[in-house]
Amino acid sequence: MATKKTKTNNVNVNYIFHDTETTGIEAEDKIIETAHLRVNSNNELVEFVQELCNPGLPIKPAAAMTHGYRNRDVVNKPSFESLESNSKLREYEAAGDYYIAHNAPFDIGMLKKEGLLWNPDRVIDTLQVAKHLYKENDEVEMYKLQYFRYLFDEDFIDLEEEYMKKMNITHIQPHTALSDILILWIFFQKIKKDFNISDDKMVELTQTPVLETKIDFGNAFERGTPYEDLIGKNYVFGRGFKKGYEFLDWSIKNMNHSIAREYSLKYWVSQACLKGIAPVSEYVSYLNWSMLFSLNEDEIKAALVLTGKASGASEYFEKMKSQFIKRTEERIDDLNKDLVNDPNLLEAIKKEEYLLYYFKKYRNQIKVSWKEKKWRISYGFSL
Predict the structure, then answer these.
(1) Does the reported pTM lie above 0.85?
(2) 2-207: CATH, from 3.40.1190.20, 3.30.420.10, 3.40.50.300, 1.10.10.10
(3) Which residue of 56, 116, 156, 197 could cross-link 111, Cys pair, CB 3.0 to 4.6 Å?
């Protein structure tokens, strides 16, 4: 175990930078290494703790290839429950500290297996934040933490030496928790500086699905093609042609996409309907979904007109929202009941919970009303 404490002048501690290494990435896997930094609002290091623990199950070879730990390294270590880290993280969560990780859902999920829950309104996922902030930056090719370290080498190199001295470590070994939290600390500071972004805004970006603007999968279209252009373009299908929105529809139904990808594809099919490219009657489900999750107020009004719901629109939209909440909560309950027999359902539960939380916090308050006798938007409708 590595532990270091630094005295400060009564400055409130705000941030926990945390990383775990695990036996693998599946539902049954558990933590073998945990490391965290506690940093105050003046960016002063207050404490860091790094510990190994016995997970009670073997480390998978694929995981060992990444972090380098073997079963013999943890066999004589205590359980996570007995670690100093366990009690400290619980204390800091109760104190309202921000929790910061790169791909936070993974580490938060691992802590949850140990019975440690963090308030989602105090969680910042630098991976998700980076995807929002750098998605239009053509220089950025991927979003891995170590990639950003080398992409922004000049920003990192001097700070690495400074922060290593603060932590009293002599070298960085990528993909170990202790080294990764050092890089995470630097990356977090770079994001705050470059984008002048508040902690609460980063929490909001963490909780908001990333709207993808360019395609980067499949062979139907050149990767990098903007979805806005793609939805109306033809692509070869068999001996004929189909439209881009038809490919997106096929992809949603036949491919296993991330939450962000599915969110984006449904949004762009709905845009094809709003722009008169796709027939509303065939793709009304995407319009309904996007009204709940991604369309702005004017687009929602346009969608209600297109779906024949302009009359009594306010009541209809409120009913849509309440029905979504009810059905999703019931679906989560059913999935949790089946989870005992099928651990693979965990990802489906996470997806449903994520979308429900996002909807309740950021979308449920949207109201639809037409106060003016005439209402016009760029789609050419008037009421």
Answers:
(1) yes
(2) 3.30.420.10
(3) 116
